[in-house]
Structures are given as C-alpha cells and as structure tokens.
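The records we work with from here on pair a chain with its fold. These numbers are not coordinates but entries in a learned vocabulary of local backbone shapes. To see the layout at work, look at the sequence and tokens printed below:
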Amino acid sequence: MKIEEKSETKKPSRRRADKIKSFRCKNLIAVIEDPQNPRNIGTVIRNVNALGVEKVYVVDPRGVLADDWQELREEPKLAKLSVSAVKWTFVKRFGSTEECLEHLEKNRFVSIVTSPHVKGKTNVFLDEGDYAEHAKLAVWFGNETRGISDLAIERSAMCVCIPMFGMVESLNLGTSSGIVLYEVAKQRRQYQSKYRLRDRRGARPELLPTVVAPDE
C-alpha cells in the first residue's frame, strides 16, 4: 500500500515534467560568476527553472557548492533557497572563470555577458539583441559587487545591458537574471516555434505553441 501511495504522489510532478518538456530551451545556459550570496544562487536556479532555461553553471572559486549534481539536488539549504527548483535543474560547478569558458568553448557555446557598455565590444540594450542567432548560448551574470570579470567580457560575443530609468541604476542578481533570461528564452522559443533548423531553415508548416496551456 505504501509503495502505491508513493507512486500516486509522483504522478502530478511527472505529468508536469512531460507537459513542459518541449518548451525547454535546449543549449541555453545561465552562468553565475563568483556569486557572494548563496541566496542569489537559489534565486537564479529558480528563475532558470521557471523560464525554461536548460542549465545553470556556477563559477565558484571559494568552493561553496558541491561538485556533484546529485549532492546539490539533495542540499537542504539550496533546495529551500531555490524553492526546490534545484531538484529539477541541472547545475554544474566550476572552480574558475577560465575553466568554465574552456568547457563552453570546447562544446561550441557562444557567451554573452550582462554588463554596462564596454568600449571595443558589441554592446546592446536587452530588447535590441538577437538571442536566437547562435545555436548554443551561455548568458553570464557577474558578481554582486564587482560585476562581470574582464576575462568573461574579453571572451564574450557581446555585452547586454538592461535599460534603467531611475535614480538608482542597478538591480540585484536575482532580479536582473530573471529579466534577461525571460527575454532570451522568449526569443529562442519563438524561433523554435517557427523553424526546425538553424539559420532560419526548416520552416514549420504550423507554428508550435510558445506558452504552456494552463491545467484544466
């Protein structure tokens, strides 16, 4: 009886996982570089899961996180901070920015960074960027105090800036990651809705839905 009850409790989450599977943005990774506050790591993981981003990479030179994903999924504090999203999100830890960049570049990912405009780089406001241009994309978010590193900027394809209109021209990591990843994921889902292949090839005869229908 206990086994049957346990099986029954899993069904709603499994049904949800099956329902959202086609809406996930494959080959889209959010990278957090040397975050100071563990709470922000949990918030970003929650944003990533909610917005359909495939993975989270964390550059963690201080060794705050475990190396093994299964250990991360079972970490009570991280589960609480992410509202259990870490159980449904792939998270990988790197010891340095260089290590993370090498891994991404080896797997043909293009990096973009969230940063104020940088001289000599391609700079765009968030709503001006084309985030479906590259088949594999990594979106970097910098340290809460220092921002993104020079190394990450140097190896990135462009710098993305959120337009701001207040006296305070800054947002915390959790808020900025949610805003940026929403726009990036939205564009990539719209592309997937229209085309099966890169470079606008393989047009679909009928557009795929870009939002998950509410449960009845």
Observations:
- The mean pLDDT is 88.
- Residues 173-194 form the longest helix (22 residues).
